[in-house]
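Complex 221.
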Amino acid sequence: MTPMDLDRLLKLLRKTYDVQDWWPSESPFEVMVGAILTQQTTWEIVASVLDRLREEGLMDVDQMASVEVSVLESILRPAGFYRQKAKRIKLLASYLVDSHSSDPLSLLDGPTDSVRKELLSLEDIGNETADSILVFAAGRPKFVAAAYSSRVLKRTGVLCSDDYDEIQTFVESNLRGGPRDFRDLYALIVQHSKDICRAVPSCANCPLSRECLHFTGQGRR
Ligand code: SF4
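Predicted structure with iron/sulfur cluster bound:
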């Protein structure tokens, strides 16, 4: 059997899930804050914390930069690692105020590699957060090579790697399509990982099983 490729994976996942409203947000700054909050927690909790931040008027860059860190920590507490996350968000907001006249779009303007480099230069912003911001706030054709991505790509037989850079380079070199396809592929992988291809996969209920390397027994990863 021919190994599954990225286009086929995207096609099968699109037939199964609808991710059109996968990362609802009202502004690029909200996406940035959400990308920091989403580490180590569920999107449902992130969404409720974002609602609370909105209610408190903190989805404004200047307000966020000036809010007392203790106030922010108490709002972020349900999202876990709230001290780290409050620090990261405050640093980001202060950076936007100082270096981009409080305008997130100014940070996101420019060649993708330059924007990514600038995001990664910020304290505690890693690959996954930077790439999520590039994809979901700036609409760039980047791939978020997070743990979910590695798991699904390995199991289906598309790519056997755990290395972030290798996975990202592979997808960006081989996925045909534009920013929308990159956005959808990652969103669909996350959805599939949460619903069916979990740590212990529910292969009997999986629409990919007939073509999945893990299920067809040609490889077990
Ligand atoms: S068949 Fe199993 S291992 Fe393969 S994608 Fe589906 S759930 Fe994951």
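The two ends are 18 Å apart (CA to CA).
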